[in-house]
Write the structure tokens for this entry.
Amino acid sequence: MPLLALILVTAIWGVTFVQVKDAVEIYPLFAFLAVRFAIASVSLAPFSAGRFRGFDRRGVVAGVCLGGLLALGYALQTAGLSRTTVSSTGFITGLCVVLTPIIAYLVFRSHVPGAVWFGVALSLLGLSMLFGIQAGSVAGDVLVLGGAIAYALQIVLLERYAPHYDPVAFTLVEMLAACVGFTAVALARGELSVPHGWTVWGALLVTGIFASAFAFLVQTWAQRELSATRTALVFAAEPVFAGLFGFLLAGDRLGALGWAGCAFILVGIVVSEPAAAAALRRLVRSSGAAGVPDEA
């Protein structure tokens, strides 16, 4: 059940690219993000009762700062999504799996295995292929890449703070910080208004409840039973879902060069995550062994 739940979460993240792209075409970007994180905060609040014991000033500051990085990532990703394709957005966002160990090395001098550098090279090759296609725009792809960098930095810093605080409480602080930031920007731009129409409300409810609040809670619950290895392997499937739903629901047609670039990015993600790659090899071996008849 935990594994299936995580697969469901990655599928939700994949399909929301299509919904968000449609929604921000008719509802202002920052207003959309403000309402999304407001819904996420309200959804998490009932589960946070009694979880703030031991939550000191350092935790609040860390949560607010990481919420700001999360907000920056979503803003860049969503702005890029409005300019490029769903498939490109999904696969470029997946680069945060590759970028995370690189940023960890640059910030904390964490050891980066050779496989990670090889994965980065493959992903950069795939990224250059995506930049060369005509389905989206270079500006949109660059914005999404900036969002992936922000996500990666947030993941690296979260590793330093999350072990010291309750995950639900810490996540709620992040959601609230992002909500306040986006609300301030939307008000300053005069964009905040009551959403109208199912296209916008459907995207807000799915992204706010399921892709934000529910997804974080599921991950916390699932990793009580699943190792980080298996979790990383499942999350590497998010770009695949984004590409699939972009093809089925948004009519993305990347062409041979674009899909080849997506394939290089996906391979780079798996190669650069040694734990996920090891789990994949074990899965392949176990599947092969299962197909061998019992001679006894």
Observations:
- The chain has a mean pLDDT of 77.
- The chain has one domain: 2-286.
